[in-house]
Structures are given as structure tokens and as C-alpha cells.
Amino acid sequence: MIHTPIPVTRSSMPPYEEYIREIAPLWENRWLTNSGTCHQRLERELCSYLDVPFISLFTNGHLALESTLSALELTGEVITTPFTFASTTQAIVRNGLTPIFCDISPVDLTIDVNSIERLITPRTTAIVPVHVYGNICDVERIQEVASRHQLKVVYDAAHAFGETLNGVGVGSFGDMSMFSFHATKVFHTIEGGGVVCHDAQLLEKLAALKNFGQYSSENVAETGGNAKMNEFQAAMGLCNLRHVDGEMEKRRKVAAYYRARLEGAEGLQLSPVQRNVVSNAAYFPVVIDERYFGEDRDAVCTRMGEGNVFPRKYFYPLTSQFSCYAGKFPVQETPVAAWVAERVLCLPLYADMTVEDAAYVCDLLLEGRK
Ligand SMILES: *Cc1c(COP(=O)(O)O)cnc(C)c1O
């Protein structure tokens, strides 16, 4: 008997009636975008939830990141990781900056702090690390390196919504952090994103950058675009924020089941449980070493698909190996990232996934072992 399909992810949704209640006033006030009342409330509620002083909302996470790099007026080279979603690298390049790819830690797959310093040149202006899969980077040592060389630090925190390290919200680290509120993320506004910053001046600059560079209708002082979040997005965010703790708790149950079933399986490497971190259980990546597992990642992925389970090769390929960058970034310079990208697979994980489904995913995955 063929199992009902299990996708890699499935968006959380608030109760239908709750969303309708939230958007109903828009038919009265007709304030649909440009920092309307839902937008203002969502900003306040997110600052409090994330425990950060300022957040600027955007129509998506990618434009939020592009605007962040622009707000800091970076030039030259930016040290970053190739083991990430396309957005991180594209935001750097679209700002006219040169990405310098640093290798990753073989353990938590975030940027390898020990490799950053030797990539710094007189042209380096920033480090853009990624809290990949919600694994929090070594924020303390990254800050040490950055401070020593007077570099900015911008975190791609797209995967890390709601996480804390030693009780401190993950958005508190670095100069600025970008969160994605895309439909597939732990917390979403359908499409959306936010930038956390720590001073009011940068906040104002971000507001101008996402609104055609306008500080007011007669003062256009930035080369800005249009990246504003609208009221329907913000309303979805207000609803989802009420439920996000419960949704994360459900995700953690599935992740805990996966861990219990898969920990110690030969040839499978799981992400470590980070000390002093409250995880959001956004993703469950496994790195499959074919020498010990007996089957390689691509074969596992195909075979699981035949069983109606659809894990995702996330992240593959490395961003440095995209065809738009052909010949520019030798893969040998980031050997760990290259090795992992060929072997990583993200297992299905979403809040309303049942433990029975997770059990079926594990049965199917482990069948491949010789
Ligand atoms: C989702 C994501 C983004 C961009 O987010 P969008 O909101 O989809 O534009 C950036 N970086 C990473 C690592 C992501 O996963």
C-alpha cells in the first residue's frame, strides 16, 4: 500500500476565522500598505517576542537582507558561507560586493570561525554568517574577529526565528540580523522578512531603503527600492505569532522522535544539540556518509520519493557553484562545505506532522542500510 505523500515542509496556518477577523477592518479603513495598523502592531509584538529594540518589516527576507547590506554602506569583500540558500550570496553580489567563501564547521555546518581570519584583506568590510538550520553560529568568536578588524557582522537568521542562546534572543548578535517570514519558515507572513538593528538611525535608513529612498515625500536621500510589507501579510503574522510557540513545540516532538530513532545509526550524522540553545526545530538535516551507510544521498532521496516521502537536498549545490558564478569560486577552497553538500538531506518536518509519519520516514530511510 502506498503511503499518502509526505512533503519536506508544510506551512502553518492560523484558524481561518482568526485571519478573517484580523483583516476585516481593512474593508473599513482601506489602509492596505505603507506601515498600516497591522504592520505597526506586528513590529511591536515582534520586538517583544524576539527581545530586540528595533525591527523593520519587509515584503520578503531576501530584500530585507539586500537592504541591510545597503544600509551599512559596505564595499569590497564580504566573508560568508557557500552552504546556504541562494538568497545570502545573491544579496551580497546584488549589492556590488564580492563574496569570499569561508569553509564550514563539519559539526554544526555554520561558518568555520577558525578559517575567517586568514580570508580578511584590506578590502574586507563585513562578515555574513548564517545560522544554518537554526544552528547558532559561534557568535562570540565571530564578534571577536570582527571587532579586531573593524568589520560589520550581518547574520542571515532566516532559519533561527525564536531561538535563544543563554537566554538571549538570537537577533541580539552582530550589527544586524535578517529573519525570513516566508511561508515555509517556522513563523511566517506568507512572504515576508524583518531586519533587527540596534539603533534608531539605522531603522530610519531601512525605512527609507524599502520605500524608494524616501525619508519624506520631498526628501529622497537613498537609492532605495520598494520592499514594504503589506497589511494582509502583517495580519497573517499577527495570527501566526499567537500560535508559534505551540507550533514549535509540535516540531520539537517530531525532531525528538527523529533523533531518538536515528542517533547512532551508522553512516548518518545529525546536527548536534547545541548547549544553552533553545532550538526552534526548523529543520532536520542528516548527512549520509555512503561508505558506512551503504547507499549514497542521491539514491536515498530517489528511493524515499518512490515511497512517497520527499526530503530535500538542502543545500545542494553550494551557492559558490551556481552556474551564474561558473569558474569564479573554486570548490576546493571550501572542502568541508563541498563534502557536506553532496551528502546532506533534510527530512520532512512541519508542525502538523504526526509521529506515525515520522516513523514511516525513518523506516524508509533506514531500509537503505546494507
Ligand atoms: C528563506 C531564506 C532566505 C530568504 O528568505 P525569503 O523570505 O524567502 O526571501 C534567506 N536566507 C536563508 C538561509 C533562507 O532560508
List keywords for this structure.
370 residues; alpha/beta; seven-stranded mixed sheet; three-stranded antiparallel sheet; 13 helices; globular; binds pyridoxal-5'-phosphate
Please tell me about this protein's structure.
The structure is a single chain. This protein is of the alpha/beta class and 370 residues long. It has 13 helices and 15 strands. A seven-stranded mixed β-sheet has the order 1-9-8-5-4-2-3, sandwiched between helices. Strands 7-6-13 form a three-stranded antiparallel β-sheet, with no helix packed on it. Strands 12-14-15 form a three-stranded antiparallel β-sheet. β10 (214-216) and β11 (219-220) form a beta hairpin. α1 (16-23) packs antiparallel against α9 (231-262) and α9 (231-262) packs across α13 (355-366). The radius of gyration is 21 Å and the shape is globular. The two termini are 24 Å apart. The structure holds pyridoxal-5'-phosphate (PLP). The site of pyridoxal-5'-phosphate (PLP) has 14 residues, from α4 and α5. The site of pyridoxal-5'-phosphate has 14 residues, from α4 and α5.
- SSE pattern: HHHEHEHEHEHEEEEEHEEHEEEHHHEH
Percent of residues in helices: 25-40%
Hetero groups in this structure are:
pyridoxal-5'-phosphate
* Structural class estimated from helices and strands: alpha/beta
Main-sheet strand order equals 1-9-8-5-4-2-3
SS elements, strand count: 15
Main beta sheet strand tally, sense and closure: 7 strands, mixed
Give me the Rg, rounded.
Answer: 21 Å
User: How far do the termini sit from each other?
Assistant: 24 Å
Shape: globular
